[in-house]
Each structure stands twice: as C-alpha cells, then as structure tokens.
C-alpha cells in the first residue's frame, strides 16, 4: 500500500507541476549534466543555504578541540565537495599556540575534477600558511571504496568527517545484511572502516557525523553494527 500511495503521490505532483512547463522540464530533464555544472550547483547550494556552513563550522570546531596537542592529524572526508571547510580548518590549526600540526587530508569523490579543484585550493592555502600538508585524493564512489587507499598510519590522530554521506554506508551495509551471507560482515565498508578506527584507537581524536535523515531507514542491526553509530564511537573515542 505504501508503494502504491507513493506512486499516486508522484503522479499527482507531476500533474500539478505541468502547470509550470519550465519548472516541470527542469525537474524532469533527461539531459546528462556536465561535471562543471554539478560543481556550480554544489557551490550555489553552499552559498545560498546555511545548513552546510553550520555543519562545517561544528565539524571544524570538534576537530580542533579533539586534536589539541597532536602533531600529526589525518582528516578523512567521505564527501569531498567544498574546499571552504578545510581551508577554514587549516587557518584555525595555524593559529594554535603550539603551532600547526602536520595535516593530511584524504578526500573521496567520484568526480576527478572535484578532487583536482580540492587539491589545488587546499595545497595553495597550506603553502600560503606554511603548514606541512599532504593531500590524498581517492577517485571512487563511497560504496566502492578500497579501504587500503586511505593509507591510515599508526600514531596519527584520525578524524572522519561524513557530511550527507553516512546514509550511503548504512544503506550499503543494510543491503548486504539482507543477503545473509556468512561473508557479508567482512565485505562491507562499515566493517572495513571499523578496522581503520581500531588501528588508531590510541590516538583517535573524534568521529564526526553531520548527516540528515533523507528517507534511508537502515535496519537496527546495520545501524548498531556500523562503526559510525553512537555505540561504536563511544568505544573508540578518547
């Protein structure tokens, strides 16, 4: 019944939107957008809506507090899209009384052009501030991520930032759990991320999640077993 109701709702909305041909065409366009257009849309969204700005400010503040006194900081960004967040973080770390740490940022995105833009902007800012900096781009969808490419090192303070991306990991793990395979738990990205966190248990600064509900409803099993769940984060935070 829920599926039928959803279809009727979609059909009714489509019928109403046809009263505005331009809007209807824009929302139902089949044209493949250019990567440059996607980047522009993301930039406009960031500039026009305060949600991401607030999420970035809170995330950066959590990182700064958790990484106090650390000499090597590794940030893993599961949704690299906007360099402004990490530019602000570099500036804040540079202002520390003890001086800036060595910073390594690993960005994950499925579009090379976005990663290239991030690399250029962040490297340029790090050079301007004279901060020891490394950028590790990973061209991949999050659900297809090869965890070895994160290149996490023992002894570095690690923070994982997931803005609007945690749901994809939970959904992926949920699908695997439905298959009920004995190898499912060790093939999921949730399991592999948990391994990464355990490797850095002694120096883990913080696990950051600024996600919103967007229609994904993972099972209780997948949510509780995820390394990004509140239960798991309590075990690994200092």
UniProtKB/TrEMBL annotation:
| Leucine repeat II (LRII), as annotated region | 117-149
Q: Which organism is it from?
A: Cephalotus follicularis
Cellular component terms, GO, for this chain's entry? Answer: nucleus
**Position of motif VHIID?**
73-77
Protein name per the record: GRAS domain-containing protein
Subcellular localization is given as:
Nucleus
**Lineage of producing organism:** Eukaryota, Viridiplantae, Streptophyta, Embryophyta, Tracheophyta
* InterPro entries the record matches: TF_GRAS (IPR005202)
The segments labelled Disordered in the record are 218-238
Task: Write out the residue ranges of the motif LXXLL motif.
Answer: 166-170
Per UniProt, the keywords (alphabetical) are:
Nucleus, Transcription, Transcription regulation
Xref: PANTHER family: OSJNBA0084A10.13 PROTEIN-RELATED (PTHR31636)
Predominant location of this chain? nucleus
Query: In which family does this protein belong, per the annotation?
Result: Belongs to the GRAS family.
Region spans: VHIID = 42-107
Where do the TM regions start and end? none
